[in-house]
Amino acid sequence: MTLPPKLDPSTWNPAITIISYRLDNGLKIMVLPDHAVPVVSLQIHYQVGSKNELPGITGISHLFEHLMFRGTEELGPEEFARRLQSKGGEINAFTTKDHTSYFENLPTDHLELALQLEADRLQNLKLDEENFQTEREVVISERKLRSVDSPFGLVEEQLFAAAYTQHPYTWPVIGWNQDLRRLTLADCQAYYRAYYHPGNATVVIAGDVEPEAARDLVSKYFGHIPSPGPPTFPQVTEPPQRGERRVVFKKVSQVEAFLAGFHVVGLDHPDIYPLTLLEVVLSGGKASRLYQEFVRPGRVADMEAYLAPPPWPAQDPDLFLFRAVAAPGSDLAQLEADLWSSLEHLKERGVEEAELGRAQKILKAQTVQGLAKNFFRGLLAGLFQLKTGDAQRINDILGFYEAVTRDDLTRVAQEYLTEDNRTVVTLKPVSPEESEALGTLS
Amino acid sequence: MTGYLSEIYQKSLPNGMNLLAMEYERVPWVSLTCMVKRGAETDPPDKAGVADWTAEFLTLGTARHSQRELAEKVESLGANLRVRAEYDATYISLDGLAEDFSALMEILAEVVQNPGFPDAEFPMLLERRRAELAHLLDDPQELASRHFRRLFFGAAPYGHAVRGEPESLEALGLQDLTDHYKREFAPNVTTLVVAGMVPKARVQEEAHRFWDGWQGGGPVSPAYSSAPAELAPPGLYLVDRPELTQSEIRMGHLGLPRHHPDYFPLRLANYILGEGGFSSRLMTRIRSDLGFTYGIRSRFFFRRAPGPFIVSTFTPAENTAQVVQEIGAVMQNVRTHGVTAQELSEAQSYYVGHFPLGLETSRSLATQVLNIDLYDLGLDYLSRYCENIQGVTLEAAQQAARTHLQPEALVTLVVGPAARCRAALEELGALTVIEGS
Q1: Cα–chain center distance at B26
Q2: Which CATH number fits domain A14-222: 3.40.50.920, 3.40.50.2300, 3.40.710.10, 3.30.830.10?
């Protein structure tokens, strides 16, 4: 059968065009034109995240992200989101260990308004005591939701706190409770001055735009904003772990669980690709090893290996995680021993060709599926640029996965998934009375 | 505005099944869904979860392949087989690369038409569900939603969790699942939806090849479409969870069925009340003004029968009573004073402007088509959608708010630490403490 060219998968070209510009004030711009649907994803990535904080003011990056929605000289609280949402936009932001990102996915016609409002809050944010106090309470509620009352939020915090001894990935993005309560308006004002300027930002526009016209629009609203140049940060390296670390954390819970992490590499390291494939071999789908061995027979409520796929791994060496939630009545210690023994088996015997092939096809499929969204295309380019300095790498991802061999998988498993490189936090259930006797959760 | 929308084409297969499909050119991807228009509504009151467990069981082996072989087959294509029941329908979905379209269609047909129902898989399914349930009940949000559903609807069809209740672990057997399959999986209530980079002729050819011969079961249960005779009396209810630092709050009353003529005006009014994020009154008051929560939302669950209207939020426990009071006041205000012309116009431009963002992926297109078929919205629904939104007048939105928001009928459930919120809640009115949780 002859297919119309647009409906023939074999003629589909996955190459994504990225046109880059740089304004005189240091602002980096990347445009990814695509005219299929009259929408655009505008993203502004500031190169500052929780790793750039200091003990005592942890959580300021994320709290500041909230403050960016509290209005300017011209706009009232949340009016930024309201005005763009009323044009059909999806408006939000997120803070990670490495960067803080704001986005507006909206009809192309309203790109200029979004740029105008982004430039406005970059220069004229209204940082007053009332806004600060209200938003701090909101973040405290968010911390209780995500960390304190969630089944494993605090367990995960304990894992990173134990696994990193010197690197700032040791504290959570949302910050420690006591730091959130200690932060002041003056801290936020200083933070705004230091990190929110064009020299520390990358603008990504993906979707139905012409590159030069998009650049001109960005220039119109951002070109005149001065910048002191990118801030410098000390490069902190986590020393190699010299032996397993174990932590017990007690809380009210129906289930026993453990969370384990192994230090691996950051996004820029070539081993990120075999590690990502290893994660899929272990727990991607219902033919995967951990599903067949632990989940399918009902030994666990959940058992997964986790390493965020590119472009999501952290910039500096990240953790390869294992999360196991025991089924009621299961022996947690035995479960853990069996997991490590399963990994030893993989290290000794390697993986089968079919397992690697499945993992490669799964990652290819996920990538192709993701590329349907301008938002995802923009994030791929933006985050690779931010964390590796090379946005063009997004066009090589499928090739990187395809080049990985079975030997690579065995090698990374042997190199990184070792007992000495492992931190394990065990969740031990206690009664509400015992929990109270252990002190307040925060 | 909608020139980029491709046509939805329809074909009835000889066995009575319906085929609906859409060509999609953006990426070489295809989304297939077999929708059986019976779901958890048909679960017997003491056997919650039958529809959903049956759906999962279809993936645990076919007449030709074991669970593992089937999973390997799907995953060697990089595809994703997902099954779930909702109240009104059961969905078996397979998404994958367009280059594998024929293989995907064959797998989907095999899963739906020739399940193996292997005995040995049932005890494992049971253990997985037992473990999952224990794990789920540690999540305060899940706990609150489950309690609310049970409290509000009681034994009526929307009163149980689709995935099952703790009692299901003892009550359900393999026979229940095979019986459900034999009764409800019938071509005359089944629609196959295909959205992807596959030409129309090829979709039709493969649909005929793989589905024409399926006879299926029946006669199917009658569809559930009436409101329950009895609901929880309005008032305040509390589930004590001393270990929590925040209270989960659910406040709701009975809503409307999907086919109700006030659907569009009410969606717009509710966007303004609590569905419109930072544009909503509830978010403005409870989060932006008071800083009491990270998130709050109100939602009408439009189903075949009237679903619930629910306001959901959480707040540090000491704020609980004040948040409950504020929510009631915001609702009352919208009901009494209505919404403004500017609010309505912003809500309308949100839905119209946002419309193309929902068409970027083949899965989101497939979801639209599934809803069009399930609720008989008409094949021109997408092309009329923006018109329907823009056609709502201020008067119609006001009328919808006045008629369908009922602050006096609210059933309010709090799941939180009683020691820190009970006394203040009691000042708001009589409080029923729900024991045994």
Answers
A1: 27
A2: 3.30.830.10
